[in-house]
Specification:
Elements: E1 11-15, E2 20-21, E3 23-27, E4 41-42, E5 45-53, E6 63-68, E7 71-77, E8 83-89, E9 94-100, E10 103-111, E11 114-121, E12 125-133, E13 144-149, E14 152-156, E15 158-159, E16 162-168, E17 171-178, E18 185-191, E19 202-209, E20 213-220, E21 231-234, E22 237-240, E23 246-252, E24 255-263, E25 266-274, E26 279-285
Parallel strand pairs: 5-11, 12-19, 20-26
Antiparallel strand pairs: 1-3, 2-4, 5-8, 6-7, 6-9, 9-10, 12-16, 13-14, 13-17, 15-16, 17-18, 20-23, 21-22, 21-24, 24-25
Amino acid sequence: EFRIAHVARALSLTARLAGYLPAERTVGAGDENAPIELTLARAEGRLSGVVVDDRGAPLEAARLEISAPPLPPRTALSGQGGRFRVEDLSPGPYRVRVTHADFAPAEFDGIEPGDDARFDLAPGGGLDGEVRDARTGEIPRGVQARIVAGAITRALPVEAGRFRAAGLPVGRARLEVSAPGYVAWWRELELPAADRPGEVTAPDVDVELERGGAVTGQVLDDDGAPVAAAQVTCGALTTRSGDHGEFRIEGVEPGTYLVRAQADGARGAAEVEVREGDEAALEIHLR
């Protein structure tokens, strides 16, 4: 039983319970004395089957995410023989996303409930490479790298300046590399299909990071008082000013910029020349 007092306008009621499909009903202000019944139907959908590689061999430890509104997504791992089973699902059909550490992720739409689902994963593509300072050849500190391939974005561990990734979607990919004090680097790559899991199909990608400059300064209002939390933009880089109006933007490519700031409808800008390895300071007054 439930009771909601002081109903002034129409309400949308939803009842949920694990293992059941949600029940919904809209009631108006004049329905407070009428009996309201929400009937929950059991979620009797199920999906079971097998995950295999491109040669038909079963894959253990594949992760399946099964989506079928109105219930939230469910996850499962394939076990021995690549088998999996998930119950208490909606009637379907389902969208299933399958991932595995050694294979490219795949999505399958329109999967009907049943016990004979089969999901095939391909090895995908892979890449490796090295990150260096463009001038000194040293390894920059704090290097971060990521790959954007298909619908996935994956961070790449960088150890001793080297990075490696496999099991990526085949086709166009974007490699992005950054480090404090350096200009952000990116490149479009083509990832061919591998013949076996873990194979690198785009080897020896050389990344040379150029040192940038830094822009520092303070944001002030029309009376000369510091402005906190102002948005400061220099080219494509953005930050916010601190408690005392101070800001710092690193990794700015050398050149001349109009640095802009704004807060609470007030705006200001100042021109600055940025040189490699140097720090340019300025004040921005908002009006």
